[in-house]
Amino acid sequence: MPYDPKPVSEGGNRRGIDERFSRHAPAGKFRVVGVDTFDNTDWVQGDFDTLKEALNVANEEGGAMTKMYVYNEYGGCIYEAGVF
Fold it and tell me: N or C: the chain end with fewer CB closer than 10 Å?
């Protein structure tokens, strides 16, 4: 089944984000969220004190069929790495 970004509760197949955890990083931090585009799982990779740390992790962990997103404390996506 192709990836549908809606949460499971709305008929999609996004399992974690906005259902089990938030996009919002803690105040003053940056949250890296991973998405396995093959099996549709997503997870919090971690919360980081600096944008540079978050970008490094996103770039190192992102790859083929693994997308990594960096969010700020307001839940805004400010960076993505990896390929679908």
Answer: N
Q: Cα separation of 33 and 48, whole Å?
A: 11
DSSP string, 33-77: EEEETTTTEEEEEEEESSHHHHHHHHHHH-BBTEEEEEE-TTS-E
Q: The whole model's pTM is what?
A: 0.80
At residue 8, what are phi and psi to the nearest 5 degrees?
-55, -40
Q: How far apart, in whole angstroms, are the C-alpha atoms of residue 32 and residue 21? A: 12
pLDDT > 70: percent of the chain = 80
